[in-house]
Structure formats: C-alpha cells, structure tokens
Amino acid sequence: MRMGHADPVLLLADSAPAPLRLRKRHLVIGFAVAALTALIVFLTLPSGESASSARPLTYTAPGGTFSLTYPADWHATAAGRSAAAFERSDRAALVTVRQNPPLRGSLSALARTLPQQLARRFSDFRPLSARAVRLSTGPALVYTFARTRTGTVETMVVAPARTSSYTLVAVARGGAAQAAREAGSIVRSLQAR
After folding, report:
1. What is the pLDDT of residues 168-180, one digit of tens each?
2. CA atoms of 167 and 188, how far apart (whole Å)
C-alpha cells in the first residue's frame, strides 16, 4: 500500500482482498447491490453504533492526531504517525486511513474531478455513487466505485478537519455484507484532534 503521497487518489489500497471470479453481467449486478449496501450502511447506522457484537479496540496514532475504533476480529496491518491500515481476519475487507494536509478546494469540486483521476489510475474503474455525509470531523465526501478486474467495491471517504484532512478507503469483497458494515463502522469512528 502506498502511504507516501498526499493526493487522495494515490492513497487507495493496492493490496485488495482476493478477487471474485464472476461473469460480467453478474459482476455488474453484484457491484450495484454491494454499492447500495455500502451506501445504506454509511447513511443509516447511527454514529457510534458498532456493527460487531465483540468489544471494539481503539487505535490512536502516535502524537494523538487521530483515532479509530475497530472490531476485535480486525487487526492493524500497518500503522504509523499519519497512516494506518486495518484488515478483517478473514481478509474480506480492508480499511486504510491517511492524514493529509488541509484539503484545497471544496468537497463538491473534489467530487467533480475524482472520477477522472480514478479512471486514469484504474483502467477497470466503474463509478457507482457519490454522497456527502457528516462524520465527527464535519462534512465528508463518500465516493464508491467498482473495480471489474479485481471484483471489489471500494469506498473512498475524504474528511476535512480543522488543521488537516483524512482519506479513508474501505475495500470489501462482493457479498461480504457484515465486513462492509464493520468497515463502515470503522470509518465513522474517526476522531481527529
């Protein structure tokens, strides 16, 4: 995973969960269902409500600049001062977070330019949805897209905060509804100083 860039597009997980082998028609239907599920999860699960029944763990970045809460059956695969990655034990989902400099421009401007940036980066990019949500840091952009070759759905969240911004990426295998709920819970748990 690349953690050395400030550009939200370059912060996507390069090591996604194992791809699914499906026919193209089934893949498109699966992406639509997964995107709808992910969107519903992001918009309907109340803030602070855990998607897992196990007691959650908390990761706090060195220096205390941000923290995330994650289920006990997830583990940190990379962690540092300004970035961290968390993976579900069964490898059905991965969440990355990176602290960046303050966002230049508005979230709506980012939403307009992000599809072109992602299409240049990923030849199998298929846009699914873009929404504004509210996190503890304030308004955030949630952008969901499919990758047809890897068989995954990725949700990128760009969350401006007072002195910086955060890019979170959740990648889940198609059909992994519980993993998607847990990933959404991790993203919503973001706290920034």
Report:
1. 999 887 777 888 8
2. 12
**41: confidence class by pLDDT, cuts 50, 70, 90:** low
Residue 42 has pLDDT above 60, yes or no: no
Q: Residue 81 is encoded by which pair of tokens?
A: 């001062």
Amino acid at 107: L
For residue 11, which of 139, 181, 159 has the smallest C-alpha distance? 159
Q: Phi/psi at 68 (nearest 5 deg)?
A: -140, 150
The dihedral built from the CA positions of residue 153, 49, 114 and 117, taken in this order, carries a sign that is negative
Q: Which two tokens stand for residue 177?
A: 């509804």
**At residue 157, does pLDDT exceed 90?**
yes
- Is 31's pLDDT higher than 70? no
Q: What residue spans define the domains of the chain? A: 8-192
Beta strands in 57-164 (DSSP E): 57-60, 66-70, 74-79, 83-88, 93-100, 125-135, 138-147, 152-160
CATH code, 8-192:
3.40.1000.10
Give the DSSP letter of residue 111.
Answer: H
Q: Which residues pair with 60 in a beta bridge?
A: 67
